[in-house]
């Protein structure tokens, strides 16, 4: 299957995503082509169209498909496809908030909670994105995300999760407040200096400050304590709360690196790969690719070629977009 190229540097400017608006876009043409492909069971065409349109364009294609066929595109795709490819195509026609809402719901279904999957979404999204996800979650499932999270978690981990989902970031723009940085460093250091670690200041500060501010705090705290943030979290916290702090610190310091590490450790798990490839394709997947290459000395594109086959492979390659030499 040939992957459609997006010509022209103007389509690449100002974004770190790999999926951009498709030029000469016509939702009506795409809708008719999808309808024909579904009749002919031409999976390659389904994949080619849906992976070469950005999310806003895919929403228009879904609307046009409804008008042309009087059928819901998601329902038709469910009947035509199966397995991981079906999941990927359905993910592509959700809005970003709907997709993350479904991912969060999946982490809480069945026996036990997938804490790492839950944290990936909560720690890598902004406060506004999380508000949108909460709305989408209520519309999709008729449930309140915060209530489900509270019932699925406990103790300090529950406090961290609730603070994340309700976070209101301060100091994300404008001048750096040196006084507040100094105060935060002292507060975080004091919380881990006594006989008993106090988790509350770590939750409060790490969920109410912007990343620029926190990275300055982290740098000064590392100099003060003589160890990395990762070591501090490892040495002073435990259990799910330690996992939560480690994930949150990793995302604050370098979200693409955290996601590259998650891909590297979970490449055989299609749900994790799908979540990152779809979720970051219009945001920072170029950065994730770069970090993956530095981390593994292998490109993400080549790794996908090795680990996946058939139309699923082609869909993931289309989202990845190109090789990194």
TrEMBL record:
Q: Which parts of the chain are coiled coil?
A: none
- GO CC entries: cytoplasm; nucleus; plasma membrane; vesicle membrane
Q: Supply the SMART domains for this chain.
A: ANX
Provide this UniProt record's keywords sorted from A to Z.
Annexin, Calcium, Calcium/phospholipid-binding, Repeat
Cite the Pfam families for this sequence: Annexin (PF00191)
Q: Which domain of life is it from?
A: Eukaryota
Record-linked InterPro entries: Annexin (IPR001464), Annexin_repeat (IPR018502), Annexin_repeat_CS (IPR018252), Annexin_sf (IPR037104), ANX3 (IPR002390)
Please give one Gene Ontology molecular function term for this protein.
Answer: phospholipase inhibitor activity
Family per UniProt? Belongs to the annexin family.
Any notes on this protein's domains?
A pair of annexin repeats may form one binding site for calcium and phospholipid.
Q: What is this protein called?
A: Annexin
What is the species of this protein?
Clupea harengus
Origin organism lineage: Eukaryota, Metazoa, Chordata, Craniata, Vertebrata
